[in-house]
Design brief:
Length: 426
Amino acid sequence: MPGAGSRGPGVDGRLRLARLALVLSVWVSAWAPGSSAPSSSLSPAAFPASAGSAQPPPADRCPAACECSEAARTVKCVNRDLQEVPADLPPYVRNLFLTGNQMTVLPAGAFARQPPLADLAALNLSGNHLEEVSAGAFEHLPGLRQLDLSHNPLSRLSPFAFSDSNASIPAPSPLAELILNHVLPPEEQRDNGTFEGMVAFESMVAAALRSGFALQGLQRLELASNHFLYLPRDFLAQLPGLRHLDLRNNSLVSLNYVSFRNLTQLQSLHLEDNALKVLHNSTLAEWQGLAQVRVFLDNNPWVCDCYMADMVAWLKETEVVPDKARLTCAFPEKMRKRALLNLNISDLNCDPILPPSLQTSYVFLGIVLALIGAIFLLVLYLNRKGIKKWMHNIRDACRDHMEGYHYRYEINADPRLTNLSSNSDV
């Protein structure tokens, strides 16, 4: 006799029939009139779920205008004329390319999502016609390490674009690499390209870079092709961790106002294709004091006159400039294409001249003396009648005095008058 726990063939058959009936009933209800195509809840994995439970949208969805690769954790939305950041970005994305679109404004919290894009590390927004980046535009991206905003006509870059818009003291940004190549707005948006417009643009970029301590961890900064004329004072003061700075293909004419002293970790500084004419001792001394730095200076219009003497002497001794053998004179004409390393002090026409500070002192002294002389002449003119009378009195007094001397001389010279004078005395 079978045990109590054993089942016969008839019992197993009834169980299989019951399961088949359940599957058929669910399938028939799903295809009933008025219902849509079978949903993903009918997949075999969904049967253990309780009936009527709502399923969340799949986490690996891809925006319609983009191409996604979950294996590479990359999303590309390139040349799709997007006007805003897609709302349905997959949370697995690590590399996001949003290039060649029509996003003119990047508002605060543009990448805020649920669940958050916590793994997004590289964001490329180049070539999007961006004109404005608002404060806190990159909030809710705790893993963002690389940001590329190149080739956007940025006319409004908030000082808090790379920090928390709601914090009074900005929290440190995770950014390690910031690329801002060719972000110069068109001329009609910067006072027709005037000097004031360029200064305003440079100040705007500088304000975003030194907002609090948000970019203390930044290691690479690229600012090429922005037509910078001067670097604003304290431009690099809040970037102590910087290792690579690219300023090539600008219009820099001087580095007098910027200090590199606090960039103790700087390894490469690119200044090629600018308008530098000479580098002064203060800048050269700062570079020499940085242990790891290498400075690239090729394709600048160096002026080989007496002011170049200190720089030439420094180049011959230093190893800071790897391309120093390629540096050549641009002016004057007779020195064109002469290598700086081959110049001697006699080639630079260093005539003895006064230092500029002493020249200024002498000019000021000459102006003061001229002013005193003018005042003296004015006093003489106003008192001309009194001076004339005084001169006449002096002339009469001198005449009387000279007549007395003349009379005594005549008496002493004539013996008769001398004897007469003696007898008269007797």
